[in-house]
Input
Amino acid sequence: MRETRLWFLSLTCTSLIIVLLGLHFAIMHYAPVFTGQTIEEARSFQVMLERGRDVAQFVVYILFLAAALYHGLYSLRGIIIELPVARGRARLVGRGLLLIGLVFFAYGTYVTWWTFATK
Amino acid sequence: MSANVKQAAAPKPRPNQLGLKGWVYAGRYSIERYLYILHRLSGLGLIAYLLLHIVETGQRLAGEAAWTGLMAMFEAPLFKVLEYVVFAGFIFHGLNGIRLHFTELGFFLGKPAQPIYPYRSSVKRHRPFTFVLMGLAALLLILGASSFFFS
Output
């Protein structure tokens, strides 16, 4: 049951990622079409800070970060424990990847918060 | 019941004997199997990119000069190509992921039927949807290439 729940969460994350990644692409890579900015403007420090101060952007990026890290690392766990080399070490692999995920999530959240709170 | 009757032993899970080699070839693989391999490879690439991208976006903490320098570096042709590879990975992985979602939820697989020759498996019933999504991926990759390299 636990594995089913983890799998279902990963499936839910993929739906979220498709929507949020679409938004990310629209804002960053198709800025001339969707926001009227050039790519260089969209990537400039000041515009990036301005964007990051928006509450909606803050929420979107935290959700995106969590969903992408969970789906990516959960899938990586699946690939690793399927290999013969990892037989009997599934728990260790799972915990190691969980730790990596938490470290990157904490760092990404800190960077997003820093951008949000910078005046 | 006699105490001497042995209980049937639960079958042991069969180890994955083919390992990595099995990803690429283990017989007559179908299109879906090659999409599976590409899905895995693109997924591995994307998770590596995601971790690097988190570190890269953290460079803003070092200030405007560091950020501007980093963005200027990404304007180099090599990074343009790498960025396009990442974009291609996202497009393929996303659209193939949508296909897998639909399969998981039982869409486009058809209703169960008697196995009467010529056999028509659920995979074959699903295949037009696969072609539509891969066609869409090809279209987006072409449009993306025009946006990345020629705009």
About this structure: Residues 82 and 90 of chain A are 9 Å apart (CA to CA). Chain A has six helices and no strands. The interface with chain B takes residues 11, 14-15, 17-18, 21, 25, 29-30, 32, 40, 43-46, 48-49, 65, 68-69, 72-73, 75-76, 79, 82-85, 87, 100, 104, 107-108, 111, 114-115 of chain A (CB under 8 Å).
